[in-house]
Amino acid sequence: MRLRPTHIHHCDVLVVGGGLAGCMAAITAKLSGAERVILVDKARVSRSGQSPFAAGIWAIRLADDNLDLWVEETISSGDYWNDQDWVRLLWERSEQTALKVEVWGAEFGEVVFERDEQRKLIRRKSRGHYHTWHALFNSMPMMESLRRKARNVGVELFERTMITHLIVQDSQKAALGFEYRKGTFPLFQPKASVLASSGCSFKSVAKFAGGNLTGDLQAAAYRAGVFLRNMENIDLQHGPKHYTVHGKNLYVSVGGKLVNSNGEEFMWEYDPLLGNRANQPTMALAIAREVHEGRGPVFMDMTSASSEDRELCRRMLPDAFKVWDAAGIEPFRQPIEWASLFYGTVAQGGGIHIDTRCATNVDGIFAAGDVTCLPPHGGYSFGGVNIAFCAVSGEVAGECAADYARSYAEPNRDTEALALRAGELIGENLRPLNSASHHYPAEAIRKIQEALIPYRVSIIKSRERLEQALEQITSVQVKMTDMRARNVHELTESIEAKNIALLAQIAIRASLERRESRGFHFREDYPVIDNREWLKWLFVKRGEDGPEMWTEGIPTPYLKPPEAYARPRGFRRNVQA
């Protein structure tokens, strides 16, 4: 029997992903004149993904702040890996975009940004900030108000719908969905699409909401011919070893300090200027190195925080403190064991390549937020860039997608051809239900995690260990060709497992290809920032025999590296036994 989509939905703009970037894109597209805008989310718009856990940190350059200083700090802190045009665009638009979100929140009685008695934004310095600042905002009220704003302006929401494939067929494009609670497969046929979901956490237990962040759109985009970039820059975090909480930027901004087993406040050896407020790659790599070299365990000591700052943290991080309270721990009264954490391609890992219009290399497909390679961040600059970029890129993508849809010269729509292709892909998705094998998706995901996540593969890398991990993942992928699903839940997991395996393979191949250390990417066998040979972006596309990679030199219109070779993140200035 020939399979067909359950429904076909035509629209001007399709947005996939209901976090900050996706909501901004959908609302902006509608306000920019797109007649029918559909917003699809794998779970519930405003409550899935990372945006609800943004931990109160939003970098905003105010009109009085020196634009050139912000641009220079972002680029130098990002190890010159940034798209410098995107850096400037971000800080030119950050304030007006943030204030727009604040106004929308006020329409529904929500307080988005924290302000003082004079109604000025409360701003702090946290990880990586020297000349720059971040504002404090309330993520849950913000996301709820964006959901309501989207519905009020006429955006149609399709929730609990996973996009499994992007179809590019001649000049026509479509997205195949899977409504996993119903077992149905809708097909969306837009004039323009905005990809705005999260990256891939590889279901790491260290990442909040990690079970839902499986890189579905990054994998679907790659299969459809969209270029990926900087996939070797595997995102690392740091946090409590035994609990999953958010708020690390806020913790160090109120005086939190890292201490090793010798009682040494060691971060000053890794960053003499910022110490415990060093940027995220420096902190994550430093913690790993302290433990690796025998000075672990490491603890976060926040006991010096003032009573006002303790109250601020509780107000800004309600979900994190629910975890602390449930565990019977008062983090301001005792040092907490801390560790480097694996986050994958989320927050600041690699992702979809875009230009300053948020356009991908495939005509009519745009991308915004975490699903991209976060071009202004580079290797990772400072706290709050992620949220700022999600808001600005979502707005830019919404504007450009609406403009594209408005000028779209629609071809003779061959819906039947798209439906036939969608039917073939539905058959691929359903195949595990008919398998009698003993290879289950949960087991496959666990084996991929065992290959990729160990710190000697994802944090302190070398050719030998990366090649071993690649062999393990390839072996898992072979077994996936006959994976079994006993119910719809496992069927969803089987799709996720294939996406996770693909992105793990790409991340490791890219890590092997970049023979230097930069940002989060640290090669033990190439422990230097090599601006002579590797001031380049590494691209990945789908080839006939698997991932194909190439490099392109990074344009430096505003700031060039001052030296050919530099010390990477994660090295002590003074070695201690």
What would your notes on this structure say?
Helices cover 36% and strands 17% of the residues. Helix 1 runs parallel beside helix 4, helix 2 (67-77) crosses helix 3 (84-107) and helix 13 packs antiparallel against helix 15 (463-480). It has 3 domains: 10-234 and 345-406, FAD/NAD(P)-binding domain; 237-341, Alpha-Beta Complex (Flavocytochrome C3, Chain A, domain 1), CATH 3.90.700.10; 416-536, Methane Monooxygenase Hydroxylase, Chain G, domain 1. The longest helix is centred in the C-terminal third of the chain and has 26 residues, at 488-513. Strand 1, helix 1 (20-31) and strand 2 form a beta-alpha-beta unit. The model has no long low-confidence stretch (mean pLDDT 94). The protein is globular. The strands form 5 sheets. Strands 1, 2, 6, 7, 8, 9 and 16 form a 7-stranded mixed β-sheet that branches. A 4-stranded antiparallel β-sheet has the order 15-10-18-19. A 4-stranded antiparallel β-sheet has the order 11-14-13-12. The protein starts with 7 loop residues before the first strand and ends in an 11-residue tail after the last strand. With 577 residues, it is α+β, with helices and mostly antiparallel strands.
Descriptive terms for the model:
577 residues, alpha+beta, FAD/NAD(P)-binding domain, Flavocytochrome C3, Chain A, domain 1, Methane Monooxygenase Hydroxylase, Chain G, domain 1, 3 domains, four-stranded antiparallel sheet, 17% strand, globular
